[in-house]
Amino acid sequence: MRRGHFINPHAGNVTLEETGANTETDKQFIYNTYNELLKDVEAKPNMTKTETYEEWAKALFTKEPANMKLLVVVDKLLTGFDAPHCTYLYIDKSMQDHGLFQAICRVNRLDGEDKDFGHIVDYKDLFKKVENAIAVYTSELDHSAGGADPEVLLQDRLTKGKERLDSTLEAVALLCEPVEPPKGELEHIHYFCGNTEIPSDLKDHEPQRVALYKATVSLIRAYANIADELEQTGYSPTEIDRIKQKLKDYLNIREIIRKASGETLDLKAYEADMRHLIDTYIEADEPLKVSPFDDISLLELIRKTGIANAIATQLGGLKGNKEAIAEVIENNVRNVIIRDRLTDPAYYEKMSTLLDEIIAARKARAIEYEEYLKRIAEVANKVEAGQSDATPKQLDTPGKRALYNNLKKPAPDRIAMADEAGVYLVDGDATLTRALEIDAAVKNARPDGWRGIQAREQVVKAALYSILKDRDEVERIFKIIFQQNEY
Prior knowledge:
The chain folds into 4 domains: 11-139, P-loop containing nucleotide triphosphate hydrolases (Rossmann fold, 3-Layer(aba) Sandwich); 157-281; 298-385, no CATH class; 411-483, no CATH class. Helix content is 55%, strand content 4%. It has 20 helices and 4 strands. Helix 8 runs antiparallel to helix 10 and helix 12 (298-305) packs across helix 16.
């Protein structure tokens, strides 16, 4: 609403308005609209309800674009408003000179690598005035300073849109070019995720995956910008079909790599809108909800429903490719081991060794596929749960288990036991007792917000030293406690 009109609506604003039967004046319409908007708003200190509402709306538009996609304003946000994701500006008001230039600059903020320009939708035929405003602005620029060219340019949207779509298609194609023939799912997994026999390969190939994710998002955006106007842009029907098929292929590759690496993508909130555009324009099938576990990780699904159901639910797109399915599962297990290894180094090192043994057996054809699935499922369950079936019941939190797994086993902790097969050694209760003592001591001594503050960290280390009596051991165990959220 116009600045200064009903900054906080009062009945006095419309008391003198005259209306006919079942009609309302403009002022009454504004008054009623404001009251409806503000009925559940609680004013912040030193702010009116209207100001509180507008601050909330602007913040949502800036920080959560998927939840506030459109702002309609009158004489507002032309200056001092920075929302880099804002890509479209619809002008339905006559403006000129500096005011017009400020308005169009609301969409010239860059928003990452996939936004090169903004779009102006002009309902007032202001193109000549825009040209004049830019001409005035650029005539005052200092071109002698060196560095980047300060000029402001108007570009033809369809021409630039076609250039951008062509370049993003080429960029994704180049990223996938090194994939070995026949360039199927397995070959793409190998290139973007590495060799499952090499524990560091998944991490080492992360730059390739990140580049693929970013390039695919750029492609989605470039396509969505001109999806309705591909023919007007200059593409032939054959080229349009080729582009749509390429887009499907690259989105499928991205999804395969995402699942194969066990990664969740940090995509922009508004990519859901782009996905809707793609589904609309390339005639993708409607999504089919095949289980109530669509949004959980592959390992969690294995633990909850079994490996056969997990494969059918999340890896059905691999069409029974046993090698590809195996490597997807292995990479997911490896990803969790890499992610959580600092929280419990001893446990996850054991899990990594078990995984290496299973992978080696599979590749050497030393076990049948059914046996492989059984063994990899057991490891996946242990990795996802963060504990084995033999874990003592007293170790009922990740922190307690990590302490127990990583404490050195002192000599008195080894107890001789005998059975019909002879004498053997087992761990007694000393390590369990010490783990529980450390857990209690740290939780009792830790100051609030102790991480990253040396004086407070020393309090935690002092509690450890009171039990461990060894400075090197204190430093080693402290690193594990630092990674555990419960402390």
